[in-house]
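Same chain as my last thread, 221 residues:
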Amino acid sequence: MHHEGPTRVVFGEEEIPTCWYNILPDLPKELPPPLNPATKQPIAPDDLARIFPMSLIQQEASPEREIDIPGEVIDAYRLYRPTPLHRAYRLEKAIDTPAKIYYKHEGLNPAGSHKPNTAIAQAFFNKKDGVKRLSTETGAGQWGSALSWACSMFGLECQVYMVEASYSQKPYRRTMMEVWGANVLASPTDTTKAGRDVLENDPASPGSLIPLPARQLLSRK
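reply #2:
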C-alpha cells in the first residue's frame, strides 16, 4: 500500500509543550460542581484539601485556558516525551474514510502507558506542597506503576493497594512498582477497615476496584 506521506512523525525536545490546555473556558456552559459523596452537596475547597494539594485545587477551578507546566515537570517529561505521532493509513483504508486519522504512541516510557503524564504532575505538586507520601489503588497495575515511578522522581513515599487477583497474576508489574520504591499490598487487606469489611464477607475475595455496596447491587441484578 503506497503512503502519501510519513507514517511516523518524531518531534524534537524543543517541541515539548510548556502549557497544559484547560478545556473549561471553551465549554458551551459551566460544569456543575462536584458533589461531596457523603453529604451530596457541592464540594467545598476544604473537602478537596483532604486529598489534593492546594496547587492542584487551584488548577481544578482555574478559568485560564493555558496553565504553565513547571520546569521540573517538563524535565521529567523529557525522559520519554515528545512521543511519536502516527498516521493510521491502514485503519483509514479499512473503514474507507476520507478522514486522516492520527494517534500518539504514549507507551514509550518505563511505566508503559499514558498515565505518567498525569502521575508526574501530581507527584510534583504534592511534593511542592509538603506531602510526604501518596497512596493509591490500582487494578492491573498501570496507574500504580505510573505513580510509583513519579514518586521515585520526586522523593515521595508511595503506598499502592493492588487488586488481589492482579497482585497474584501480574508479579512483574508488582515487582516494577517495588523497584521504584513503592510498598505494594494485595487488596483487600487487613490493614484497612474497608479491606477488613470485605474479607469478613468473603475471606477469599480476589479484590475489585468497585466498592462493596456497588458489587452487592450488581450481584443482585
